[in-house]
Amino acid sequence: MKKSHTEIFAFHLQNELKNATILFHQNDAWISFQSLAEISCLSEEKLIETLNKFLITDEMKDDLVFLYWLPPKTDIYGMEEPPEFIEFFSLEVAMWLLHRANINSKPLEEYTKWASGKLQKERPNPYRSLIIYMLTVVACIKLSKIMLFDLELELIVLTVATLIIFLAIETSVMFFLGMIIFCLVIMLFTHSIAILLFPLTITTFIAVASYKSREETQFTHKKESLSSGYENFRNSVFNL
What is the pTM of this model? Predict the structure, then answer.
């Protein structure tokens, strides 16, 4: 997953050039409520009325609405003011407005095409991860045969290989499945369980860290899935 970032979407509204700041986060494009109202050519009141027909449960809001909390402010007496946030809406919401709510708006149509194209370019390449994984496994097998009687070097190589696999694979299911296959292959070619000590320890640490990295959902206040926790933990490693 690419690091969260913002981009400017420029559009014409009544012969006036306007800009909307789009947040690209968690493999989705998020647009603020005010900007969504502008590109939809709807008043804020009408947009609220329309969205209430779509976002009818807290579970849907967890998936399609992102609350960006603003830094806390203090008043002239030094007292902290009530927290404020900006509502950002998923690209799916814009798609629903265009295709299901039948909102006839050229800027809205342009935005959905633009954001979809951006996300398509940023989508992770599974073939790249697979190639890195296969090369890592093959390299470990060859090096394990060369260092057959040097347990310490084998442990170092397999530890580095585990870290490479973690950095290369972006989803939890593929990572843990890949590590199971990796350990079985190494055991098959080396006939030793002892050398898997460090890789299994790191894999266990990643699993625990992913579990603890699950955040609370913003509307239902439930813990996210392990998959989301894995992505959160992996992103925090990349942001170090």
Answer: 0.80
